[in-house]
Structure prediction request, 351 residues.
Amino acid sequence: MQRCLAFIFFLLSVLTFFNGCSEQREEPQTNGEQYEKVRLVMTANGTDMGIETLTARHFSALVAEASGGNVHIEFYPNDELTGGNTNEAVRSLTEGAVDLGAYVSGTMSLLDSRLEVATIPWSFSSYQEARQVIDDTGGDYYAKVLSDYGLVYLGSTHNAMRQLTSNRNPMRSPDDLQGMRIRVLGGEVYRLFFAALGAEPVPLGWSELNIAIRQGVIEGQENGFFLMRSGHLNEIQKYMTVWNYLYENYLFVANRKTFEQLEPKTQALLREKMREACEWSRDYLETEEKKIRRQFAADGLEIIDLTPEELEVFKERVYPLREKLKAKYGEEACTAFRIDMEKKHGEDDGK
Prediction:
């Protein structure tokens, strides 16, 4: 009897050992890293299909996968946490009520106007140039300025190279814009730019734009291909001028107190995956814009590509504004974004 009991005990011990090994093999794989369990709240004002929303969700998925689910990012688009109030959402980020956020530089300039420096008209001739400058020196400048407001800069992705549409007439010269009521964002660069061209800039919320165009309150608007498609603006506008007059980007940030309380490897994970997500979304948007342009043309939108000579007329008209904006944002900001306005635009750089 004693031998039987001993044998049974031995079998149970063996089974327990192998069962424990099996359970260990089933634990989430994290490439040798065990991350702290943490839940972070992220906000953005974009719609469900906005590029910042797509980027944020891709980022969340990358972080969850790499951390074995330990680092969970709970994302809220459309400024849901502040009832649609974007200004309140930015304040919540600086105060730590929200951990992470994604907002265009024009919106973030509510904190500091220098964050809008990259929107000086015709600072970048292409998406590739914008990527290179921001990833090289521009991002460091963003990080320095945002730090003064309790925020950590994590990355940047495209919003758009912005184009112009209208129902009134084709737009090939500043004369074609005289008195045209054009919807713009609230940032001063947009208002000053179109005023310099003789148009009537009208700050208006995105949700109101479609109705305003249909009712004739607004004759034109400026935006990128991606957002125009999401708002079906190609269906209610007749003419588009492709001129890449301004580059706008999204800044992804974290509340500094929250970020610094995280373990160093969690901080490194967030930085790494944000860079990866931003590269993904940049590639995605650039590819999509080519498809959208073809779709717009097929649907009947008249698309105008300005000749270099036509484009130069616009640039000459806003040259005094560029000088004024350079003085406002300062030498450090313009150097970081390689905005050389001591020489006339178009003299050596083709912009």
Observations:
- The chain has twelve helices and nine strands.
